[in-house]
C-alpha cells in the first residue's frame, strides 16, 4: 500500500546491508481510514515501521497501532497505553531512531523481529530465541566494528564478586564489584547463578533481595569480555543454561531487586524478571546493545516487554534512550521509588 510506505520485501545492497531498514507512517493521515490491509502489510514487513502521531489515534486504528514497531506520540496526544511512546518532539525522536538504526541496521532488524516473537513465547522459549539472535550477532560485522580497537582482556580479581547472606528465611544477595560499577562478568554471572540456585533449591527461603554495592546497581555487561567467546554455539548454550535471569524469573514471587544509580543493559534486563523492583530517585535505565551491533542478551527482550510492552521496549532498545525513575515507574518498568538504606549502597 502506497499510504503506508511499506514494501513487501526488504531491499539489500550487494554486501547484504539493508537499504531501507526503517519506514515511517504518519498516523494523523489515517484518522478516517480502514487500517486492516495496512496492518497486515506492516506485520509481514521485515522493515521497522514507526508510527508518528500528533493527534490521538482513534480506536479503529488499534490493529495498526498493534502491528507497528512503535508509535511516537507528541505531548498533545497524552498517551496512556503501551503502544504509544510519549516524546516531546516526534520529528526529532524519529530522526534519532533513523540515525540509530542506520548505524547498525542488521542488529536493529534482528531486534525488531525478535520483539515480535518473545512476548508470545514462554520464558524459556523466549530466552532461547534471544540467545540465538545474540550469538548470531556476535559473529556479525556490526559488532566487529564496535569491538575494533577495544580492550578485550578482563581485569583479574580473586575476591568474590557476589556475596550471599542468609538471615532466617531471607536471602540477601549483593553484586559486589563497585570498582567496576558492578559490571556483569562471566564470573559474576556464575556466582550469581549459584546464589540464586540456593534459593531455588531451598523452599524455606521465603524472601530473596538482590542489591548492588556502591553508587551503581550495575553498568551492564563487562565490556572487557565482550566478543571473547571462541565458539558461538557453545556461547548460546551457556547463555541459555547458565543465565541467572532465568532463575530470577522462577523466583519472581519471592524476589525484590533494589536499584540505585545506573541499571544498564543486563542490570535492568535481569531485574525486570523480579516480582518487585524498587529504585532510588536517582536511578536510571538504558539498553545500549543495538549501538554495539547486538540485541539485549540477559533476557531483556523477554522481561522488559512483559513490564512495559514491546513498543516501549523497542524504543528503549533501538534508541538507547535513558529512562529516569519517574518514567520507569509510570511505564511499569519498576514498581516503587524509594530512598535506599545505607547498607543497600
Task: Give an account of the 3D structure.
With 345 residues, this protein is an alpha/beta fold. The protein has 13 helices and 13 strands. The chain has helices at residues 36-44, 62-67, 90-103, 105-117, 123-138, 141-147, 186-201, 232-241, 244-250, 266-271, 300-308, 310-319, 325-331; strands spanning 22-26, 48-53, 70-73, 84-86, 162-167, 170-175, 207-212, 255-259, 262-264, 276-279, 284-286, 323-324, 336-337. The chain is globular, with a radius of gyration of 20 Å. The chain starts with 21 loop residues before the first strand and ends in an 8-residue tail after the last strand.
- The proportion of strand residues reads 15-25%
Percent of residues in helices comes to: 25-40%
- Tell me the overall shape: globular
Strand order within the widest beta sheet? 5-6-7-8-10-13
How would you concisely characterize the structure shown here?
This protein is α/β, with parallel strands linked by helices. Helices cover 38% and strands 16% of the residues.
What topology emerges from the helices and strands here?
Blueprint: E1 22-26, H1 36-44, E2 48-53, H2 62-67, E3 70-73, E4 84-86, H3 90-103, H4 105-117, H5 123-138, H6 141-147, E5 162-167, E6 170-175, H7 186-201, E7 207-212, H8 232-241, H9 244-250, E8 255-259, E9 262-264, H10 266-271, E10 276-279, E11 284-286, H11 300-308, H12 310-319, E12 323-324, H13 325-331, E13 336-337
Parallel strand pairs: 1-2, 2-3, 3-4, 6-7, 7-8, 8-10, 9-11, 10-13
Antiparallel strand pairs: 5-6, 11-12
Helix pairs in contact: 3-4, 4-5, 4-12, 5-8, 7-9, 11-12
Amino acid at each position: 500500500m502506497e499510504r503506508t510506505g511499506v514494501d513487501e520485501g526488504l531491499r539489500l545492497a550487494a554486501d547484504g546491508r539493508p537499504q531501507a531498514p526503517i519506514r515511517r507512517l504518519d498516523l494523523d493521515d489515517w484518522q478516517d481510514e480502514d487500517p486492516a490491509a495496512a496492518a497486515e502489510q506492516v506485520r509481514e514487513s521485515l522493515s521497522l515501521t514507526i508510527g508518528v502521531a500528533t493527534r490521538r489515534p482513534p480506536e479503529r486504528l488499534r490493529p495498526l497501532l498493534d502491528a507497528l514497531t512503535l508509535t511516537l506520540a507528541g505531548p498533545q496526544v497524552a498517551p496512556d497505553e503501551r503502544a504509544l511512546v510519549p516524546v516531546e518532539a516526534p520529528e526529532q525522536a524519529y530522526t534519532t531512531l533513523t540515525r540509530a538504526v542506520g548505524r547498525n541496521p542488521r542488529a536493529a532488524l534482528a531486534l525488531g523481529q525478535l520483539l515480535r516473537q518473545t512476548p508470545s513465547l514462554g520464558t524459556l522459549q523466549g530466552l532461547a530465541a534471544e540467545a540465538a539472535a545474540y550469538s548470531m550477532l556476535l559473529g556479525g560485522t556490526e559488532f566487529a566494528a564496535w569491538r575494533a580497537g577495544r580492550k578485550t582482556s578482563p581485569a583479574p580479581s580473586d575476591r568474590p564478586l557476589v556475596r550471599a547472606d542468609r538471615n532466617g528465611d531471607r536471602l540477601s544477595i549483593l553484586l559486589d564489584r563497585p570498582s567496576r560499577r558492578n559490571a556483569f562478568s562471566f564470573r559474576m554471572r556464575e556466582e550469581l547463578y549459584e546464589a540464586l540456585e540456593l534459593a531455588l533449591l531451598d523452599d524455606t527461603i521465603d524472601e530473596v533481595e538482590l542489591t548492588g554495592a556502591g553508587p551503581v546497581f550495575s553498568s551492564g555487561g563487562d565490556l572487557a569480555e565482550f566478543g571473547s567467546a571462541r565458539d558461538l554455539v557453545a556461547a548460546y548454550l551457556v547463555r541459555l543454561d547458565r543465565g541467572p535471569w532465568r532463575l530470577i524469573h522462577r523466583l519472581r514471587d519471592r524476589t525484590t531487586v533494589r536499584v540505585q544509580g545506573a541499571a544498564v543493559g543486563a542490570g535492568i534486563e535481569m531485574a525486570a524478571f523480579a516480582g518487585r523492583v524498587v529504585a532510588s530517585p536517582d536511578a536510571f535505565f538504558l539498553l545500549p546493545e543495538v549501538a554495539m551491533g547486538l540485541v539485549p542478551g540477559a533476557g531483556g527482550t523477554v522481561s522488559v516487554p512483559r513490564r512495559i510492552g514491546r513498543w516501549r521496549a523497542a524504543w528503549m532498545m533501538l534508541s538507547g534512550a535513558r529512562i529516569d525513575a519517574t518514567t520507569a515507574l509510570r511505564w511499569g518498568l519498576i514498581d516503587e521509588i524509594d530512598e535506599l538504606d545505607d547498607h543497600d549502597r
